[in-house]
């Protein structure tokens, strides 16, 4: 099968391209750096023309109030081009529990992206994943001041990008689900503990201070970002990933 992987140079996109090609498909990465722009529409029709499936793994450059407009415009452009080009399956990657965090613009933006896809003209699959293990260091950097990293006790269930990419590639190559598949990592831990584990494995002079008001995850209540009963659980543990 032929795939246009939009955002195919990113963390997940680049691995999905490799996995689809290794499975015998023809997957082509497209992104700003390959010359397309999902916001202006430049190159989008050409990118998706002739593809059996489109896998949209782009991300908004910011997580703030500008993110809903990014997902609205990019989905409008990609769905219009995909429909015109006869694409038979459109896949996006969203976030477990995104609809449970309406006070964060980025999570609202991901729900908007899902809603646009569901209302659109192309058979679809939505993969909702928990937070990437690769993302923990970035989260820590956002609330670092000097040698202190302030982190809340928010429960997270980190997943390795490798594991998630296997599932995204598998879903893309399958029959459209016209539904959502949830996937998370094997362990649930508070974010402050994940920060301490990270610095134990990779000491850099910083220490973690628990602060339930710190950073974007402070806005998250209880276990809303944790998978529930019907989810797929990925194999890689954070301790092994860190090692
Ligand atoms: N972070 C998490 O823990 C998490 C959890 C669940 C789901 N997700 C979702 O996973 C998806 C992929 O995330 P990621 O971390 O793999 O993303 P990423 O590494 O930041 O990659 C983003 C990709 O989007 C491309 N891009 C950005 N703006 C574009 C534009 N205007 N036109 C064309 N391409 C554009 C980038 O192109 P260039 O490289 O050429 O600039 C890059 O290929 C996101 O939708 C995110 O919401 C994330």
From TrEMBL:
Organism field: Streptomyces cinnamoneus (Streptoverticillium cinnamoneum)
Protein's UniProt name: LysR family transcriptional regulator
Pfam families in alphabetical order: NAD_binding_10
NAD(P)-binding domain mapped to chain residues: 7-134
Record InterPro entries: NAD(P)-bd_dom, NAD(P)-bd_dom_sf, NmrA-like_oxidored
The entry's keywords: NADP
SUPFAM superfamilies: NAD(P)-binding Rossmann-fold domains
UniProt lineage: Bacteria, Bacillati, Actinomycetota, Actinomycetes, Kitasatosporales
């Amino acid at each position: 099968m032929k795939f246009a992987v939009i955002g195919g140079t990113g963390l997940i996109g680049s691995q999905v391209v490799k996995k689809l090609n290794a499975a015998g498909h023809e997957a082509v990465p497209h992104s700003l750096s390959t010359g397309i722009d999902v916001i202006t529409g430049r190159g989008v029709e050409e990118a998706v023309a002739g593809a059996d499936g489109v896998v949209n793994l782009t991300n908004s450059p910011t997580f703030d109030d500008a993110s809903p407009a990014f997902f609205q415009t990019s989905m409008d452009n990609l769905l219009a081009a995909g429909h015109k080009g006869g694409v038979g399956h459109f896949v996006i990657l969203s976030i477990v529990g995104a609809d449970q965090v309406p006070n964060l613009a980025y999570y609202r933006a991901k729900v908007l992206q899902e809603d646009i896809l569901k209302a659109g003209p192309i058979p679809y699959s939505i993969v909702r994943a928990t937070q990437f293990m690769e993302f923990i260091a970035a989260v820590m950097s956002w609330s670092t001041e000097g040698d202190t990293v302030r982190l809340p006790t928010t429960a997270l269930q980190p997943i390795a990008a490798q594991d998630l990419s296997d599932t995204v590639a598998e879903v893309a190559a399958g029959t459209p689900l016209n539904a959502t598949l949830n996937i998370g990592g094997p362990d649930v831990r508070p974010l402050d503990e994940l920060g301490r584990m990270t610095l134990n494995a990779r000491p850099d002079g910083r220490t973690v201070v628990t602060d339930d008001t710190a950073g974007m995850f402070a806005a998250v209540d209880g276990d809303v970002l944790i998978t529930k009963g019907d989810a797929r659980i990925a194999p890689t543990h954070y301790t092994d990933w860190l090692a």
